[in-house]
Amino acid sequence: MCGIAGIFDPDINPTKDEVYPMVEIIKHRGPDADGYFMKDQIGMGMRRLAIIDLKTGNQPISNEDNTVTVVFNGEIYNYLELRKQLIDLGYKFKTNTDTEVLLHMYSEYDLDMLSYLNGMFAFAIWNNETKTLFVARDRMGIKPLYYARIGRRILFASELKCLLTCSALDRSLDMDAISDYLRLGYVPRQETPFQAVRKLLPGHFLIADKHQFQIKEWWNLEEIHRSGAFQPTQEYESETVNLFDSSVEFRMRSDVPVASFLSGGLDSSLISVTASKLSPIKLQTYNVRFADALFDESSYATTVAEQANTDHHQITVSAGDALEKLPLLVWHMDEPIADSAIIPNFLVSQFAANQVKVCLSGLGGDELFGGYSRYIDKPLGPYRRFFSKFPWLIRTILPLLKITHPRHANRLAPLSGPGEVWRNYLNQIQLFDSDMLRKMNIKEMGQTEKIIKDLWFSYPGEDDIGRRQFIDQQTYLPDQILALTDRMSMAVSLEVRVPFLDHRLLGSITNLPEFEKQTQNGDFKIWLKKILGHRVPPEILERRKWGFDAPVLNWIEFPKIKEVITHLPKQLSNIMDSKYIESLIQNKTNPRYHNLVWSLLMLAVWQKVYKFDDPPDLTLHELFC
């Protein structure tokens, strides 16, 4: 596990003086070692967090004749099996790392190597014979990879801030991306807040030499969904359980102890209980609770820990102290993100990192097994129920309604015909709608509508829950949940592994029928409870669902936070209308008030801190007041 960065330039050879700042700014990702490779058109570097082969695993690593060199962030969980295959083929190893496995897999299979890998990864391979750069990202986007082009020069890195160290990079804001952030609470897909920087999408690779620059897809979620829904059998149930256990077992591979986050929810409980049985030593589990939480689930975590016989650690924190860390956390995030879970994620990671280097997480269970209420359409209100019977009427009045009452138009549009049904989901997940963006005086409307619509109609299945999961698995999961987990854990040099996102398990359960996922009355993750629920205490199955979130409802009302919020209109006036922002933060009757204000606060903090070359040693109050 580490952070990587590099420059490819077919015209002007990059220097170490250019690469060094890119690598040094992410030293938090790898405090154990650093390394550089400079050769003609390529310059690459890395910071290492030593997990596998502690003594000889430093990077970059080159093959025997120095024709191929790699820098690698992540873990290849099936590296032992691949290593054996390569030895049988005649390859010799000088280390015991999964990194060297990547080298020889490339030599043997070229770009087809990717299909053999089970892991989370972002790596760059330089082929010195063909003078070709090959950069790839894992299937689900667990590990990040940013890139930018300046003429024919290509910059790539694990974090966006690496690229910002280059003075020649255009820092112009991408207002479409800012609009998408306001819509969704995160910047989706390949977009970033900067016009010149993009994310390499999950399941994609980049190829560059002096003649070409290409980005291609090597893995596609759509293919997994093509098999269609089916009726699960007892044999299938056993297969899924075995895949889950295998996934956890793979992620226990490490030359340092592996621990587990344990919130007390179903997903983290299943991971922790299973890992405890597989661990050669007593499993360490970690939990954080807020002293002023609206709901305290720590007792559930304690119950699971006692049953699983783990060495359980819990810390209680003050929300006020946590909020003061926002400038630091947002700096580490690279992009604005409106999920208050960044705070508990950072705190539990910081807590665990005092003792361990690796933790398992239950991330992905909701997106795979049906864990969100938004996957089921809410009942129609009276006026929507009436209009749903007359779609022709909606189509007639919709153009006028978009001008006179755009919010009503937004709500009624899904009822106007099958071509607009995707708006049902958009209406459920968006924070600010297009009408609100216009009132903010933002001219760019972003790509959110196109992204959601395209994914909605590209889903090859028939069930609505699966369709919404399909969208989340390519947007919300990689761009918000996995992104914040990677940044908050790596900010304190902690590796987080996610067993639910093993592609074998994903392929097995993706096409479950709707009734095995969740029901209208709020019964979630039916299949997961059916096949694995017996492993956890009964109260874990019966408890209400509560996300790993923070009590924003309370936080917004803290005196210091309220004072900061009063500064938002001025802080955001460079990109939006301050009078409208003023009206938003004063209208507490809006049922989404707290989420809207929180998203504006996080955007304002991001605007302040992204320019810092080092982690800001400022409280939130000092930043604004």
Description:
This protein is of the alpha+beta class. It is built from 30 helices and 17 strands. It folds into four domains: 2-219, Aminohydrolase, N-terminal nucleophile (Ntn) domain (Glutamine Phosphoribosylpyrophosphate, subunit 1, domain 1, 4-Layer Sandwich), CATH 3.60.20; 228-326 and 335-373 and 474-542, HUPs (Rossmann fold); 375-472, no CATH class; 552-624, no CATH class. The strands form three sheets. It has a six-stranded antiparallel sheet with strand order 2-3-1-9-8-10. A six-stranded antiparallel sheet has the order 4-5-6-7-11-12, with helices on one face. The radius of gyration is 24 Å and the shape is globular.
Please sum up the structure shown:
The protein has 625 residues and is of the alpha+beta class. The protein has four domains: 2-219, Glutamine Phosphoribosylpyrophosphate, subunit 1, domain 1 (4-Layer Sandwich); 228-326 and 335-373 and 474-542, Rossmann fold (3-Layer(aba) Sandwich); 375-472, no CATH class; 552-624, no CATH class. The chain contains 30 helices and 17 strands.
